[in-house]
C-alpha cells in the first residue's frame, strides 16, 4: 500500500513511517500542509494520513482542496482536537476517519487497513466533479453550472482524464498514452485539435477559462 503522511511533528512522522514501512507499506512524508498538497497532486496514494494543525496550510483546508479537485483518496485525520465538533468538522471537510492523539500505533495501522479495504470494495465512482464541471460516467453527460455540454466520444475521454488529474500539468505524452493509447509520437497535431475543440465547448460563454495551456509542459484543468 502507498501511504502519504502529512505531519509537521518530525518525531511522530518518523515513528509512523517506520511502523508502516515495517508492515510492508511504502510511505511518502510531507512536513506541512502545502508540501502535503503538492505530494497529493503529484502522486497516487491508497491512503493519506493528515494532521489537522500544521503550518502553511491546515489539514482541513488541504483535504477540502483535494476533494474539490476530484481526489477521492481515503483520508485519516490525526488531531489532538478530540471534541465532537472537531471530529464533525474533519469528516465534513472530506475526511473518512478521525483518530485523536495520543493514539496507539496498532489502532492507527488497523484504521489505515480498514480505509484501504473500504476503497477496494466500495462502489465504483460514477460522478466526477471539478469546480463547476460535473461528469456523469454512466449517463455519459457533462455539464458546467448546470448547462449540458455535448461532447464527442474522444472529447469525453480527454475531459475525463483531465478531470481525474485536475490541478496537475498533463503532458502530451500522457494524453497520447492514456487517451489515444499511442506509445509513440504520431507527429500530428491531433492533441492540439481535440484540446482546442474541448476548450471551446467547456469554456465558451463562461466568465473564466478552466482548460489552460501550460507553456512547455502541456495542459491543466483548473478547478
UniProtKB/TrEMBL annotation:
Domain annotation OmpR/PhoB-type: ranges: 125-223
Keyword Flavoprotein: no
Keyword tRNA-binding: no
SMART domains given in the database record: REC, Trans_reg_C
Response regulatory domain: residues covered: 2-116
DNA-binding region(s) from the entry: 125-223
Sites bearing 4-aspartylphosphate, chain numbering: 51
Keywords tagged on the record: DNA-binding, Phosphoprotein
One Pfam family recorded for the sequence: Response_reg
Annotated protein name in UniProt: Response regulator transcription factor
Native source species: Phenylobacterium ferrooxidans
